[in-house]
Amino acid sequence: MSEAYPGLVLLLVLQVCAWVLLLWRFWGVLGYPLDCKDEQGNVISCISISLEKLLDRVIQHAELIYHVSEESCTLFEEMFVPVSMRTQQNRASNTCITKAFPIPGSKSEIQKISDKWLLHSVLMLVQSWIEPLVYLQKTLDRYDDAADTILNKTKWVTNKLSSLEQGIVELIRKMLDEGLLAVEHQQTLTRFNVQPEVVESILRDYAVLTCFKKDAHKMEVFLKLLKCRHTDKMSCYIS
Amino acid sequence: MSFLFIGCRWFTKDSLVSFSEAFSSKPSVLEKSLKRAERMKEACGAKCVLFLLFVQTWLVENAGHTSPGKPVLLRCRSPEKETFACWWQPGSDGGLSTNYSLYYTMEGSREDAVHECPDYKTAGLNSCYFNKTYTSLWITYTISVVAQNALGNKSSDPMFVDVAYIVQPHKPENISAELRTQDQKPYLMVKWDPPHKADTKSGWITLQYEIRLKPEKGAEWESHYAGQQKQFNVFSLHPGEVYLVQVRCKPDHGFWSEWSSTAYIEIPDYFRPRDTSVWILIAVLLSVCIFLILAWTVAIKWNRIKSYLLPPVPGPKIIGFDTQLLKSGKSEDLLNALGCQGFPPTSDCEDLMVEFLEVDDSDEQKLVMNEGEDDLEGRVKSSGNDVDKDSGRGSCDSHTLLLEVSNSSTKTYAQVGGNSNNKGSVKLSRKSSTNGKLLSFETAGEKTNTWPTANSPFLLARQSSCYNISKIHREASSLGNKADMHGNTSSTQSKSKECRELHSTVSGDQETWFADEKHAPLLPFKSVEYVEVQKLNQQSMLILKPKTEGHKSVPPEFIGQEYTKVSGVVSDRVLLLLRDTGAQGSSNTQEGENQAVHPSLQCQVGKMVGTFPASPAPEGMQLAASGYVDTAALLQSF
């Protein structure tokens, strides 16, 4: 047997080599650690979007949403709302559905507010407005073609709002290390199923637009405050 | 393969040998078993080899149809930051039908939450399209493509996608190029629209643009960065060419779009204002050059031009007149050249009378007096051949004839004395009306002259000249002084006597005459008195001596007559005069006497007549009854 031992070993080695050669092409299928490279071939870190970029984008979203909502509100006011009634809505801000949110006013209060609170507040705002905007789109259809621009803007805002929601969620996840699932929007349209009269419809739509405009401004402000805290924690305030 | 075979055989052989040793008891059986083992070993090796061969060849065959090659993700792009799509390049398909699938994971979700591409079609072949629902700006995507065939699958390298950074918009739309002018300079205004899918109105995407243009036949493009505006002005243009214009855009973070469709614009040829200024400059230079050439030409040819344009004014020139002679002062030559004789005439008789006395003895004119003509001639004529200094020959002036300048007054008297007839008588007409005296000169000789009465106011030219002479003389000096002078002049006593008498007589009446003359210088004399010039003394004074007229008295009928006719000219020296009234025959007797008359003594009455100056002499001219021609009147009428 000792005579055959080296022969056996040799045979085994050779076999292994043959299989290796045969299976060489399929080596990659088995997988190996991925290098994170971008398009240009540079090795980048495989972490996700940085927090700063995320914040910037969220803020950009909020700014744009506010800007467009302001435009649509102004358009609606010029087209449909008589002059005498314009100031009424501004005074009657309590009709907004989100009036329950306390807004920090003074500087001391602002410093007490945590990031968590800011983010959750913004998230709540965003989530609470998606439905009313959807409903608003439906009501605006009844305005003939005169409100097409407003309708388009509203649609646009709705889209962006949804996107913003995702951003906030992501932001919360990264900033607060909290995992949040996208909340399923409940259909809370029961409130708006009533078919009001025309005048009331106009006023109500106008109210919706103005309220949303205000809330959009709030979101923008909160997010900017958040950003300010991350960059410079000393001199942030709500202007 | 051979190694395997050898190894297999070796292995089997050894195993068989060892195996056979264990089982064999009989030596003869061992020998049989060994032989059987060897046969079996060989057979087993062969089978083994064959088996291995079979397996390996099967494996090799399957290597030709292998799992697909590794695909490569080319790029992922989002046109509007709301959706995106990815494209890959497939690898070798391994000879078998291979399908590709794209899987992605969303960062932040669970590691095993792999999603597959929702849309393989929209973006084309080998693409995956993510619509709005699947696009999130908040997370990065890890995308990979897996190629799969019957034999296996192959995954590509993953790609990490951040949607915000892969934005590549579509190309700009509605590009238009328009030619405009500004300050007569053309420029190109290019306008365009952003891609319709890019939401630039709300500010979702901010795009930057870039323009490029080139001439149609140019080689390189000329690029301009336009910023965020949607129009751009291009100034560097070449006229007369067709330009191609293109635009592309890029977001803040992203990729440049493709170049838009080309806009063609033709730049027409225009007359650039720069060219007009060049033409003006050329025109100015040309005019300056022409001006310089003209000036140079004029400067060279100035003399000729001057003579052409401004011809020299001819100076005064008299044919035959030589200015040089004039300048030399030789008046004689000058006048000779001119051919004028006797030029210039004396301007003033008075001057002549003052300064000089001259009698011309030219042969041209002769005066023939009826009576006493020889006396006249004698008296009158002097050596007129002598030429004055200051004039030519003796002028034709009568008074010059009468006036004797020379010193040959003695001859006069001699000649006069020689005349037998003594016809020559001088009559002095006294103009004075108050004095009705009749001056009668008594001559010593046979000549007797009877002076006419005062009522015969005729004046002989000669006599008037003589009178004038005498007047002058008297004015100048007293006659009494001259008494000694004329003493020696006359050879004939008669004459001298006459003159003396005359002078004496005259001197007696000097005062009267002077008075007459002075007071009534212009009154014609009523009586005719004759004086003869004796000589001219050194002081240029005329020595006069009265001339007695021996002839008969003047017939009264001659009084008042002023003219006489010339009957004829005798031998060119004598002028025959006719008496109009009365006796006429006495004029014929003058010929003979006149022959002997020295030519110099001839009196040119004509000259006298013609040249008697308008002096305050007696104006009227009367013809004496004695036959003497009173040319004073003629002269005066002249």
Layout: helices, strands, pairs:
The complex is a heterodimer of chains A (239) and B (638).
Chain A: H1 5-22, H2 51-80, H3 86-91, H4 107-112, H5 115-141, H6 148-176, H7 198-231
Helix pairs in contact in A: 2-6, 2-7, 5-6, 5-7
Chain B: H1 2-23, H2 27-64, E1 72-77, E2 84-89, E3 99-106, E4 114-116, E5 127-130, E6 140-148, E7 153-155, E8 159-162, E9 173-182, E10 185-193, E11 207-215, E12 222-227, E13 231-234, E14 242-251, E15 263-266, H3 273-300, H4 302-309, H5 323-328, H6 331-338, H7 349-355, H8 373-380, H9 398-402, H10 409-418, E16 427-429, H11 461-476, H12 479-482, H13 485-489, H14 493-508, H15 510-519, E17 528-529, E18 531-536, E19 542-546, E20 565-570, E21 574-578, H16 590-596, H17 605-611, H18 631-637
Antiparallel strand pairs in B: 1-2, 2-5, 3-4, 3-6, 6-7, 6-8, 9-10, 10-13, 11-12, 11-14, 14-15, 16-17, 18-19, 20-21
Describe this structure in words.
The complex is a heterodimer of chains A (239) and B (638). Chain A has 239 residues and is mostly helical. Chain A has one domain: Growth Hormone, Chain: A, CATH 1.20.1250.10. Chain A has seven helices and no strands. In chain A, helix 2 runs antiparallel to helix 6. The longest helix of chain A is centred in the C-terminal third of the chain and has 34 residues, at 198-231. Chain A starts with a helix and ends in an 8-residue tail after the last helix. Chain B is α+β, with helices and mostly antiparallel strands and 638 residues long. In chain B, strands 3, 4, 6, 7 and 8 form a five-stranded antiparallel β-sheet that branches. In chain B, strands 12-11-14-15 form a four-stranded antiparallel β-sheet, with no helix packed on it. In chain B, strands 1-2-5 form a three-stranded antiparallel β-sheet, with no helix packed on it. In chain B, strand 11 (207-215) and strand 12 (222-227) form a beta hairpin. The chains are: A mainly alpha (239), B alpha+beta (638).
